[in-house]
From TrEMBL:
Keywords: Hydrolase, Protease, Signal. GO terms for molecular function: aspartic-type endopeptidase activity. The gene is LOC100841142. Residues 1-24 form the signal peptide. This is Peptidase A1 domain-containing protein. It comes from Brachypodium distachyon (Purple false brome). The keyword Hydrolase applies.
């Protein structure tokens, strides 16, 4: 069989995948999917002044009543829009390159953090204590720009203007392309103009928050600590970067067609020089554990929790992200929790502790040290990440996973030899519902995450090809639970109880 012209992650070209139908130790893959919309609940303006300084922490300590949860629009980039004028091969190759660069950057960041701060407190610290202690840390993003496919609608400035930002739990800085745009990528709509906003304020070079970002290679001299702006430089790998000034701005939340409220003083990067593969996004909304992330800055208003529900890959309809408690999710009968794992080297990422992998209901023979975090350089471990597309496991685990599927797959589906990048791949032409072995993650505290077939197999119905949506990384690298496996799960980041929650939901119906 000749090689097909497919070279990468196959995500931008997927047809909407279907609900999961389990039978015994196998799962079925078909091709249907519903749609849905978003709601915005009431918002309490009395505590809408958010930031990341000592005053915020004091207010957080004293506050007893939290605001109702905040819900933001979230959508997936349209496949047709992302691939207009480009070949399928080009888009596949780009997707693979972006994931690869993102992972390499994450590994580098972990190593640098371990070298620079070997004695820092682990990520298992309480959120409030960790926030105050990380005020002196240097913030670098772990995201390879553009690999995050989920966009969040935000309204920034006064008067508020709408922007779509990439949602990313693997980074901390929130930033937009800003006028004057000295070197910028193409985006949908105009860039943010700070001169047109009455609520825009520069963070000065003497502000403690300025110490949370890396300066440009040739930093400006801070002549006046109270008036000179704070310049920043973020490098993401593969020549992707953003350079600009750190600022404070208002983020406005729509409540109804005629009502809105705003959160003032949110730290935002105003990027004047930005390069990378952003595909029309206006910037990036960081949801990591660091003090500059959007999630961290809103804790005083909404508490130590946020959640999201990701629709199918390939779907053009919206999804949502919730800051604060979602009572429907909390009462879900299938809501499971696993504790966030400690990590001495890295505090931006959300680590969990894997114990093993199950395929077809059977535990695979994977050495236990595959899942640990190195005490020497902080490498290894497992993170959950909204910005990485597929899921990745170190080579010993990946080889075992791949072989388990090869051994257990129905021989009625011909194995495609030497298919580029993804493996195993099968010819499923003419088969509406494909039976595949079940796939589950077992955590150290006993929690189990069972996935529907469409979350770990990619099917290209137009070509009759189906591939395992899991790839390998070097033996010492971290494992990553990517957004492809998270689709149609409501995922909760509960930092008050230091745990990750997950419940199966048709996100198009939430």
């Amino acid at each position: 069989m000749a090689k097909l012209p497919v070279y990468s992650v196959l995500l931008l070209f997927l047809l909407v995948l279907s609900p999961f139908l389990a039978s015994g130790k196998s799962a079925r893959l078909n091709s249907s999917g519903p749609l849905y919309g978003i709601e915005f609940p009431p918002f309490n303006t009395a505590v809408a002044d958010a930031g990341c300084d000592g005053k915020l922490l004091a207010e957080e300590e004293e506050q007893k009543d939290r605001s109702p949860s905040l819900k933001l629009h979230m959508s997936r980039r349209s496949p047709a829009e992302a691939t207009a004028g480009r070949t399928r091969k080009d888009s596949f190759l780009e997707s693979a390159q972006k994931d690869g660069v993102r992972i390499a950057t994450m590994h580098r960041r972990v190593a640098l953090q371990a070298q620079a701060q070997p004695g820092r407190r682990s990520a298992s610290s309480s959120p409030r204590r960790a926030l105050s202690e990380r005020l002196v840390a240097t913030v670098e993003s772990g995201v390879a720009v553009g690999s995050g496919e989920y966009l969040v609608e935000v309204y920034v400035g006064t008067p508020p203007r709408r922007f779509q930002m990439i949602m990313d739990t693997g980074s901390d800085l929130n930033w937009l392309q800003c006028a004057p745009c000295l070197d910028c990528f193409d985006q949908r709509g105009p860039v943010f103009d700070p001169m047109a906003s009455t609520s825009y304020r520069n963070v000065t070079c003497g502000d403690t928050r300025c110490g949370l970002v890396s300066p440009p290679a040739a930093p400006r001299t801070c002549r006046s600590s109270r008036s000179d702006p704070c310049p920043y430089y973020y490098w993401y790998g593969d020549q992707s970067n953003t350079t600009g000034d750190l600022a404070l701005e208002a983020f406005t939340v729509n409540l109804t067609a005629s009502s809105s409220r705003r959160v003032d003083g949110v730290v935002l990067g105003c990027g004047h020089r930005n390069r990378g593969l952003f595909h029309g996004a206006a910037g990036l909304l960081g949801l990591g554990r660091g003090p500059l992330s959007f999630a961290s800055q809103l804790r005083a208003v909404y508490g130590h929790a946020f959640s999201y529900c990701l629709v199918d890959h390939g779907s053009a309809v919206g999804s949502k992200i919730v800051f604060g408690d979602d009572n429907v999710l909390l009462s879900h009968p299938q809501l499971n929790y696993t504790a966030f794992a400690p990590s001495a080297a890295e505090n931006t990422f959300y680590y969990v502790q894997l114990k093993g992998i199950l395929v077809g209901g059977e535990m695979l023979d994977i050495p236990s040290n595959t899942w640990g975090v190195s005490k020497e350089d902080g490498s290894g471990g497992t993170i959950i990440d909204s910005g990485t597309t597929l899921s990745y496991f170190p080579e010993p685990a990946y080889k075992a996973i791949r072989q388990a599927f090869v051994d257990r797959m129905d021989k009625a589906y011909p194995l495609i030899a030497d298919f580029p990048v993804l493996s195993p791949c099968y010819n499923v032409s003419g088969v509406e519902r494909v039976e595949v072995p079940e796939f589950s993650l077992l955590f150290a505290d006993g929690a189990v995450w069972d996935f529907p077939a469409e979350n770990y197999f990619i099917r290209l119905d137009t070509e009759g090809i189906m591939c395992l949506a899991v790839l390998g990384t070097p033996r010492s690298a971290m494992s990553i639970i990517g957004n492809y496996q998270q689709q149609n799960f409501h995922v909760l980041y509960d930092l008050h109880h230091n745990r990750l929650g997950f419940a199966p939901r048709r996100c198009a119906e939430v």
